[in-house]
Amino acid sequence: MNFAETRFWEYLLAGLLVILSARFVWSRLASSTLEIFDKFTLLSLGLFLLLCVSWVTFVIFLSVAILTYVGLLRILKYHPRHATKCLVVLIPLQLTPLIYYKYANFIGNGLLDLHLETLRHLIIPVGISFYTFQKVAFVVDTLVHKNPPPKFLDYMNFAGFFPQIVAGPIERRADLLPQLERFRFRWSPEDINRGFSWMVVGFFFKCCLADNFADNFSAEWPKNAYLVWLANLVFGLRIYYDFAGYSLIALGVAQCLGVKLTTNFLSPYCSTSMVEFWRRWHVTLSQWFRDYLYVPLGGGRTPFWAFNVALVFVVSGIWHGAGINFVLWGALHGLFLIVNRLFKPITLPKFLAWSLTMLASFFAWLCFYETNTKTLVTKIFVLLNPREYGLNSLHNALHTILPASQFVLCSLFLLAGATLLLEWFSVRRNEPYYYLRQPKIQILLVILTVWLAPVQNNGFIYFAF
Amino acid sequence: MASSTLHFKSLLPQRALLLLLTAFVAWISCVLYTIKLNPEIKFFQKANSAKRAWAASLASPAQPRIVIYGGSSCMSSIIPQRMMENHQLPVLNMGLYAGMGPKTLTQYALQTLHPGDTLIVALEPELLVKPLKTEPAAIQFSFASGNRALLRGTAIWDWPGTLLDVRPGGYHVLTLMGKIAARAPLYRYGVGEIHPDGWQEIAEKREFGFEPPPGGSISNDARKLLANVAQSCATQHVRVAYSLPWRYCTAKDIPFLRGRNLDFLRQISEFIPVLKEPDLGIQTNRSLFADVPLHPTQEGAALRTDELAGQIKHWNTWTPQEIQSALDDMPRNRNSQ
Fold it and tell me: How many CA atoms lie within 13 A of B206 on its CB side?
């Protein structure tokens, strides 16, 4: 379910065409059951698109979805008084496929050195981290807040709503379920216009910026301080525009169907503190960790708040991938947040605060893309060593990158800079991506996307998570 | 009437339609640029015209021809005029650009074959270890040259993606802007380098070192392609063989490259015979190469042409067993680099 592939749109349009034709006939034959028809066909469309990704993805998704629903009903039927205690059993069961596919190889072959060949070749089913977390949140919200279980069809639509199933946003029961309970296929020009405006920004982010940055990124550049910083910068911009692009396209597709999803990114590179950065980066995951891990641990009101912050971010790092580098990435961000909180009373000039925030977040991206621990440590030392910033290093760095690539990178930085400036103005208006969604700007974005998107598209980074 | 028009308009998502229309117009402008102005595509169109004209000049039903194809290493290393004048061999150099992918390059060469001809496959090893697909450069060349047959076999559901590939893409556009700003040539190769016989004489000189070809198995797609070539040649009564392109190599890397080339040729010989060449395409004379380790200079191309002419005349080919025994005779650490 890759929005950047034409195949996805072919399947989606074909599916919608079939559904709307069948709906036309159905409305003549049994109009009283049209609501059920709409919900059923929405679910069928979602499952069909998931099946097109791979049958493993489809089977794992169905297993986790059905296990969650059956488990929830059994708890409510047989143990209604001890519902929350039963979570201790249900949540680990929900997490089992995720842990197996994502961490079995790391634990079995990496940590325990068991040489298990089958684990080496495990392919992570697309979206498993996202829909598993959504279902865990659903169970907790239902049992802890004593909500009634939804009907099976509504639940399945909530669990498998195709725009957001493979890479989020991780939606909450209270936000998404009511919308899907009253879902109907309606022709709404207003929704379609709004949906398109999000999709245009999403495609510009993904195809024009992220994919071009991806084509000009190399983790193999020599261990030169300037080149490591350059790689961090290129990777940081790429991952943001890639993931935010995907999320905005998902938002747009859902909006065209009349469903409003959570805006998953709120221009994080306009943040002036790490706390703000995490309020703007992958919003639904940050909220998930806040509500289901940080707050239950005691949050920020206990003497152990620093430990809680560190733990949450280490777990967040592990969620992103099985590797020491991801743990380190999470730990670094935890450290940044602790420092941020300790120095909160000190007010810095805005530009300085923004610069420090960017310095920290782009420094940390090194731990995200560099999976070889030895190389990672070497590069960290290179970045922290003032001697590595001499003129010789700069000269070597300039010689490593071909003049054509230098020009391309400079052009991309200019384009990304202009985009960030528009994001900054939108943040000041308190309306995310407001200026990028203005009609004249949108026409420019469409032209830039068509002309500049690489002819070979790159997959979405977060599919790997 | 006016109110019904107003009602109809309000039913249309006008802003979305405007954006779709903009995308369509932008794509049309990309198509026009690609087929009319893109300097790289223009270069290959010029090469295509030269090759077609040379093929037409050789047209004689009584005389079977020798068609040689591959990527740019082939285009820059086989001189048909020399083949004709010095060796009396009517040769077509159908080599184009490796970025078009082996499927298209093969299709392009097969289009020119007549019964009784000889086909020399000179695809670079790099091209045969990856899964094969129709590359954007091939699609663009196909549209620009009006040779739709190159896209034969494209499934109906692949057409939207294929049409969307008729675009220049960010790297091309941005580097082109840089070249215009720097008043540099718009493409590294000029149309003046293409000779009337379809051979490209590379003028540019660049620094480079030894670049080993990838090791390992050739891809399943490549196996299918080679099997199809063998079958197609058999049905058309065309003689076929593979000839390894020349590659610059430093003296210390010779054993390694010999091992890798033999391993590659052993796999190729399972499908089509391999022309026997004791040096295995390994050349240590740096002055015979121009801008990359697979592009010979004029002198290198002349030597390669003469050598290939001799091989074609003698038609000595290797069997898989011979290659295997040559591999077995090599030192055990041949592939350790």
Answer: 14
* Residue numbers in A near B30 (CB within 8 A): 450-451
- Chain B hits for A440, Cβ within 8 Å: none
Q: Residues B102-153: pLDDT tens digits?
A: 999 999 999 999 899 999 999 999 999 989 988 999 999 999 999 988 988 7
What is the mean pLDDT of the segment spanning A289-309? Answer: 90
Over residues A339-368, the pLDDT tens digits come to 999 988 788 899 999 999 999 999 999 999
Tell me whether residues A455 and B167 touch, CB distance under 8 A. yes
For tokens 């007549």, what's the residue? B114
**Cβ–Cβ below 8 Å for A189 and B13:** yes
A189, A197, A408 ranked by CB distance to B175: nearest: A408
Q: Please give the pLDDT value at position B332.
A: 55
**A189 and B CB contact within 8 Å:** yes
Q: How far apart, in whole angstroms, are the C-alpha atoms of residue B245 and residue B307?
A: 12
Say which of B11, B15, B26 has its CB closest to residue A439.
Answer: B15
Question: Quick check: is B45 in a domain?
Answer: yes
* B53–A contact, CB cutoff 8 A: no
With respect to residue B7, please indicate whether it lies within any of the assigned structural domains. no
Would you kindly state where each structural domain of chain A is located, as residue ranges?
A: 7-185, 190-464
The residue with greater pLDDT, B297 or A146, is: B297
For B308-329, how does the pLDDT look when each residue is reduced to its tens digit (9 = 90+)? 999 999 998 988 888 888 888 8
Domain count, chain B: 1
Domain that holds residue B78: 39-328
Nearest Cα neighbor of A169 from A266, A309, A59, A273 is: A266
Residue of A nearest to B176 (CA): A404
Q: By the CB < 8 Å criterion, does B101 face chain A?
A: no
pLDDT, one tens digit per residue, over A70-85 is 999 999 888 777 777 8
Contact B170 A200 (CB under 8 A): no
Which positions in chain B touch A9 (Cβ < 8 Å)? 160
pLDDT tens string A130-167: 999 999 999 999 988 888 999 999 999 999 999 998 88
Asked if the Cβ–Cβ distance from A453 to B169 is below 8 Å, we say: yes
Residue of B nearest to A451 (CA): B169
